[in-house]
Write a structure and sequence with these properties.
The protein is mostly helical. The chain has helices at about 1-5, 10-30, 35-55, 60-90. The two termini are about 30 Å apart.
Length: about 100
Amino acid sequence: MGEVQNTTPSEKFEAVIKEYLHQGKEKLENDLAGTREAIKLIARDKTKNFMRTMDLGLSEEERNCLSSLIITSMYQSFCYGYGIGKIEGDTKQKVCL
């Protein structure tokens, strides 16, 4: 119990943001199926745009890899946005990382 009281503000912030990131991930996985599908469609479009812009053909495996990378990045962005929004709502202050 003494360890909890001796935490620094940055450690407290880190614990809170981790909890909110986890909540964002759970919300995305369970409640927001439409958002997940939209992210997948956007990733496919971004992959096609990349191929068009670079004038480069990609194999199906390469396209899937690039789409997966984009999807993962968008999932992480969603979770961070969710977490930061929750912190800003709790503290009534703007949060900058």
